[in-house]
Each structure stands twice: as C-alpha cells, then as structure tokens.
Design goal:
This protein is an alpha+beta fold. It has two helices and four strands. The strands form two sheets. It has a two-stranded antiparallel ribbon. A two-stranded antiparallel ribbon has the order 2-3. The mean pLDDT is 97. A hairpin with a 6-residue loop joins strand 2 and strand 3.
C-alpha cells in the first residue's frame, strides 16, 4: 500500500491521527495532516483504509499494491 495526502485539501479534522497515529500526524501550527509513513506495514492497512474513508476532505489517497 502506498499512501499520499493532499495537504491543500486537508481541513485539519484529525480523524486520521486518531485512527492511524503510526501513519498520520498533524502540524502543530494549523492541524494540517502530515504523512509519517507512506508505505505502512500490512497490519496498519485496515486503519489507513478507514482513515481515508472517513476523511471529511477526501485528502487521503491510497494505492493498493
């Protein structure tokens, strides 16, 4: 799995960080998403998929390998 985030689209809701904190974080100054791991381990895939599905801005993009 490859993960990409669109920081321009991100609204800073933070749901991705709550669901998959090993993969996503937020910038201190404005809460915009930061990608910590663009190729997460298989055991994190379900959480990353859930984060992408619930992202209110649709700012998380996944490419399944």
């Amino acid at each position: 799995m490859q993960v990409d985030v669109d920081q321009v689209k991100c609204t800073g809701a933070g749901q991705c960080v709550l669901i998959a904190p090993e993969v996503f974080d937020q910038r201190e100054e404005d809460g915009i998403v930061e990608l910590l791991n663009e190729s997460p381990a298989r055991e994190l895939h379900d959480g990353v998929r859930e984060a992408a599905l619930i992202c209110p801005a649709a700012a998380i993009h996944l490419a399944e390998a």
